[in-house]
Design brief:
heterodimer, A: five-stranded mixed beta sheet, three-stranded mixed beta sheet, 51% helix, B: 130 residues, alpha+beta, four-stranded antiparallel beta sheet, 10 strands, elongated
C-alpha cells in the first residue's frame, strides 16, 4: 500500500469510528481518534506474533492503542478499546490471513497439502476442514482422498450394467451432506462398491433453466460467502476421491 | 426523524440482515447445489457435481433409474422429446483409487416421453457438448 493509501485508510477508519461512536451516544472526535490512531498503528501491531494467522496479542494491542487514543482525546478508555479491538478483529486480522496466502502462493508452496494431510488423518473430512482446505488451496489440480467408510450413503436405484447407481449422503449427517451432497456409487468388477470423485467447488449451475436452479445458486453463493470469509479468502476448487466402501442404506 | 436515527436504523437493519444471512449460510456447502430438474413426465436432469450429471427417470414411487449416464452436457425438451448431448464418463483406477475422466466424443441422444424409447441420434445444431 502506498503512502496515500495508508493515510486514506486511516482517515476512513477514523470517520467510521466517529460515526459509530455518535450512533452509540458518544462524541465523533473520540471514536475518530480511537479508530484512526489504531489504524495508523496497524503496521506496527501487525508485527506482533508475526507468522500466526490470528493473534489475540494483536487484538489486545489494538485495544490498548484505541483506548489510549480515546482517553487522550477526552473520551472513555473502554469505548476506545472496544473500537480498536473490533477494528482489528473484523478488518486487519482478516486481511492478515489473506496476505500470508499470497506470500506462500508466490513461493509455489501449497498450504492446503499440510491442512489436508492433517484433516484427513482420520479419513473423514468435516465441513469446516473442507472449507479450510479450499481457502488454503492454490492448485486447481489438487486432490484429497477420503475414507468412504466414514460416510453413510442412501442408495437411490439398483446398480446398472456398468456398475453405476445413484446415491445421496444421509441428511442426518448434515456436515457430510454439505461436503459431499449427492454422489454416484460405483461397483467394480471385483464387486467392491465405492463413490466416484466429486469436486469441492462453489460454481453456480449454468445455464439457469428453472426456478429451483436460481434457488440452488443463491444457496451455493451463501456457501461460497462463508467459505471465503465474506470474499476475503477466496480459495481454489479441488477434487475429492474416495477410498473404501461407504455404508450403503436403502 | 433525525439523520442520526435514520442512520442508526439503516445500520441496525443491515446488521440484522447480515447476521441472518451469516447464520443461514453456515449451513450451506457445495452439497446443497446437487439437485434435479424436472424435464417432462418423470424424466429429470440430475446434477451431483463434477462429471456426475445424468438424465434419470423417477417413477411415482420415487424409484430412480439412470436413463442417460454422465456426463450430460446439455438438454432440450421439444414436443415430448428430450434431446441430450453427453461426453461419456469413463471410470479407471489409479493407485487403487477409483477415478473418472471424460471422453472427447460428443454423443447425441433422444428420449421419447410417450414411448420411453431411448436412442442415439445424429448431431443437432441446437445442442452441443461443453
Amino acid at each position: 500500500m502506498g503512502t496515500s493509501g495508508y493515510y486514506s485508510k486511516v482517515l476512513m477508519h477514523g470517520i467510521t469510528g466517529g460515526v459509530m461512536n455518535v450512533l452509540s451516544g458518544g462524541k465523533f472526535g473520540h471514536g475518530f481518534a480511537a479508530a484512526g490512531v489504531t489504524q495508523a498503528f496497524a503496521p506496527a501491531i501487525g508485527k506482533i506474533d508475526k507468522g500466526s494467522r490470528f493473534s489475540a496479542g494483536r487484538v489486545a494491542a489494538a485495544a490498548i492503542v484505541g483506548g489510549t487514543a480515546s482517553s487522550l482525546s477526552g473520551g472513555k478508555f473502554a469505548n476506545g478499546a472496544i473500537t480498536g479491538a473490533f477494528s482489528r478483529l473484523f478488518n486487519d486480522e482478516v486481511h492478515h490471513q489473506g496476505q500470508e496466502r499470497v506470500k506462500t502462493n508466490a513461493q509455489t508452496y501449497n498450504p492446503a497439502i499440510e491442512i489436508a494431510n492433517y484433516a484427513t488423518k482420520d479419513g473423514h473430512l468435516t465441513h469446516s476442514e473442507a472449507n479450510e482446505i479450499w481457502r488454503a488451496n492454490n492448485d486447481s489440480s489438487f486432490e484429497v482422498t477420503v475414507d468412504a467408510s466414514k460416510l453413510t450413503v442412501l442408495q437411490l436405484d439398483e446398480f446398472n450394467d456398468k456398475g453405476i447407481a445413484l446415491g445421496r449422503v444421509s441428511y442426518t449427517e448434515t456436515g457430510d451432506w454439505l461436503v459431499h451432497g449427492s454422489v454416484t456409487l460405483y461397483r467394480g468388477n471385483d464387486g467392491v462398491v465405492t463413490i466416484l470423485p466429486g469436486k469441492y467447488d462453489f460454481l453456480p449451475h449454468t445455464p439457469v433453466k428453472s426456478f429451483m436452479t436460481v434457488v440452488r445458486n443463491i444457496e451455493t453463493y451463501g456457501g461460497f460467502y462463508v467459505a471465503s470469509r465474506a470474499g476475503f479468502s477466496v480459495g481454489t476448487d479441488y477434487l475429492i476421491n474416495y477410498s473404501g466402501t461407504p455404508n450403503v442404506t436403502w | 426523524m433525525s439523520l442520526g436515527k435514520v442512520l442508526k436504523l439503516l445500520i441496525l437493519t443491515a446488521g440484522i440482515c447480515f447476521l441472518v444471512y451469516w447464520a443461514a449460510a453456515s449451513f450451506l456447502g457445495p452439497g446443497v447445489k446437487d439437485h434435479s430438474i424436472s424435464l417432462i413426465g418423470g424424466y429429470r436432469y440430475l446434477d451431483s457435481g463434477h462429471y456426475e450429471k445424468q438424465i434419470v427417470y423417477v417413477d411415482s414411487g420415487r424409484n430412480f433409474t439412470i436413463v442417460i449416464d454422465a456426463r450430460v452436457d446439455d438438454y432440450l425438451v421439444e414436443e415430448g422429446v428430450i434431446y441430450v448431448t453427453r461426453r461419456p464418463r469413463e471410470v479407471y483406477k489409479d493407485n487403487g483409487v477409483v477415478k473418472t475422466r471424460i471422453s472427447n466424443v460428443c454423443e447425441y441422444w433422444e428420449i421419447n416421453n410417450q414411448s420411453g424409447n431411448v436412442r442415439k441420434i445424429e448431431p443437432r445444431l441446437t445442442l452441443s457438448c461443453r
